Amino acid sequence: MIVRSLLILSVSALPALAQAKAAPAADLASPVASARTIWKQTADYLVAAASDMPEGTYSFRPTPDVRTFGEVIGHVAGSQNMFCALALGEPAPAEDAVEKAATTKAALIAALRKSNDNCDRAYQQTDKASTAEIDLFGNKRSRFYALMQNAAHDGEHYGNIVTYLRMNKMVPPSSKPRPNGN
């Protein structure tokens, strides 16, 4: 009976597997390209969320001891500037520079887009270049490590932003229907 059930489940999953899209060849060949794919999706969601949130709600914070929505956007932009500069072997700006300077929705979205442009350069480097050693928070790491930290950090804060959006009765970009139906 168990074998039969497993066989039925296996056969029923075949159509879904057949419809799954193959990863682009560049992602299979290049660790940096794979990291870029992960980062880019989250970066696009962050910009969409920042654009969707009404300016009056940028001051929203779920509890008094956490950042406002706008502060999270500024923090992400500043962190991206720092991580991606390090990943390029360039002097890193202060991580909190954007969060302290940009306060309006327009300024925060502009800073987030600019940080995405900076990171786009970093995620275009070669795999070989990404093996260069950098100092990250007092530890010797590779540039690739900084790219992965950036992508992970963005994902962490996109999770915060999803909660902020849901608490304001908004649908996060990652939950909206996509044009291709997926």
Q: Could you explain the architecture of this structure?
A:
The protein has about 180 residues and is mostly helical. The protein has a single domain, classed as dinb family like domain (Four Helix Bundle (Hemerythrin (Met), subunit A)). It is about 60% helix and about 5% strand. Strands 1-2 form a two-stranded antiparallel sheet. Strand 1 and strand 2 form a beta hairpin. Helix 3 packs antiparallel against helix 6, helix 3 packs parallel to helix 7 and helix 4 runs antiparallel to helix 7. The longest helix has 25 residues. The N terminus is likely disordered.
List the main descriptive attributes of the protein structure presented here.
182 residues, two-stranded antiparallel ribbon, disordered N terminus, 7 helices, mainly alpha, Four Helix Bundle (Hemerythrin (Met), subunit A)
Q: Which helices and strands appear, and what pairs or packs with what?
A:
Blueprint: H1 2-19, H2 25-29, H3 31-52, H4 69-87, H5 97-101, H6 105-122, E1 133-136, E2 139-142, H7 143-167
Antiparallel strand pairs: 1-2
Helix pairs in contact: 3-6, 3-7, 4-6, 4-7
Structural class: mainly alpha
Question: SSE order in H/E notation?
Answer: HHHHHHEEH
Instruction: Give the overall average pLDDT.
Output: 87
Helix content: 55-70%
Taking the sheet with the most strands, its summary is: 2 strands, antiparallel
Shape: globular
Beta-strand residue percentage: under 5%
CATH class: Mainly Alpha
The Rg value, from CA coordinates, equals 19 Å
